[in-house]
Amino acid sequence: MKIAVVTDSTSYLTPQEVADNDIHVVPIPVIIDGKVYQEGVDITTKDFYANMKSFKSFPSTSQPPVGEMIEFYNKLGDQGYDAVISIHLASTISGFYNSLENMRDAVDNIKLVPYDSQITVRLMGYLAIEASRMAKAGHTVEEIIARLDDLRASMGEYFIVDDLQNLVRGGRLSNASAFIGSVLRIKPILTFDEKHEIVAFEKVRSTKKALARVEHLFAEEKAKINYPLRAIIVQGNNLEAAEAWKQKLQQDYPEMPIDITYFGPVIGAHLGDKSLALAWLKDIDKAY
What gap in Å lies between CA 247 and CA 249, rounded to an integer? Predict the structure, then answer.
């Protein structure tokens, strides 16, 4: 069986990774001042953050049109694929996954298998890379999904944001009322809860204290497991801070690979400027 692997642009894979792993990437629309842009196609991350302060309204996001997605999957069938595993951002922050589930029967030229990553950004990107590797090695759809479930269960993350306004306005913060009115001089730490919804986890008085708190939380989680981890620092127009944080973490965990990646326009539209995150999952490059 020939299996295609699809993900969306919020995986923030590099062009080289996409090419090397034969991954198909669907751009997610971001709407800025009434104009629709396709993430990674006609708007870059650099341009998004450079112009953020001049936006007349808060940017928002949308889903790729259903008709275009049906056509896209059927074309993969025309290319000789028997099945497609389509890995996308959490259904708790986007309706895209549910839309794919609803269109399964409309895709008649290939077996469509939507997969809810329950997360986004580079964590989801690693799911797509692993799925592609397994597909190339001849594994079945069922074997690949089981592996993705295992990786997904190993994921964790904490976000530090400067401003909750975008998350609140977009309805992406499930416990927003607990933080409204108390965000001045506060660095909120966010995470995904057991329902895979973004929640405000703690209030911290400074970025320095927030970083230290996240490091402590990560150390607690790492102490509970017996397999190698890969850590990921995600930054939204905050590369200098991300690099400094990586240097600190690499001293604490010299054996652990640590990547730096970014929040592109779609996720940045909700997290805002200067956000940081520490995320982790099982290291897909090591045996365990």
Answer: 6
Q: Is the pTM of this model over 0.85?
A: yes
The neighbour count for residue 156, using CB atoms within 10 Å, is 19
| 157 close to 196: Cβ distance less than 8 angstroms | no
Q: DSSP secondary structure string, 96-156?
A: HHHHHHHTGGG--SSEEEEEE-SS-HHHHHHHHHHHHHHHHTT--HHHHHHHHHHHHHT-E
- DSSP element (H, E) containing 61: strand 60-61
Residue 274 region by backbone torsions, left for phi larger than 0, else alpha for psi between -120 and 50, else beta: left
Distance CA 120, CA 115 (A): 12
Residue 203 burial (10 A CB sphere; 0-12, 13-18, 19+): middle
Question: And the tokens for 148?
Answer: 């993705």
CB 102 within 8 A of CB 76: no
Q: Do 270 and 167 contact (CB within 8 A), yes or no?
A: yes
Q: What is the rounded distance in angstroms from the CA atom of residue 160 to the CA atom of residue 211?
A: 8
Tens-place pLDDT, residues 158-196:
999 876 665 555 555 555 544 554 455 678 888 988 888
65-85 per-position pLDDT tens digit? 999 999 999 999 999 999 999
3-state secondary structure of 35: strand
219 φψ region: left (φ > 0), alpha (ψ -120 to 50), beta (else): alpha
Percent of the chain past pLDDT 70, that is, above it, reads: 91
In a 13 Å sphere around the CA of 164, the CA atoms on its Cβ side amount to 27
Q: Which of 256, 248, 160 minimizes the C-alpha distance to 206? A: 160
Contact in structure between 276 and 245 (CB atoms under 8 Å): yes
Domains present along the chain, CATH in parentheses: 3-28+63-153 (3.40.50.10170), 156-282 (3.30.1180.10)
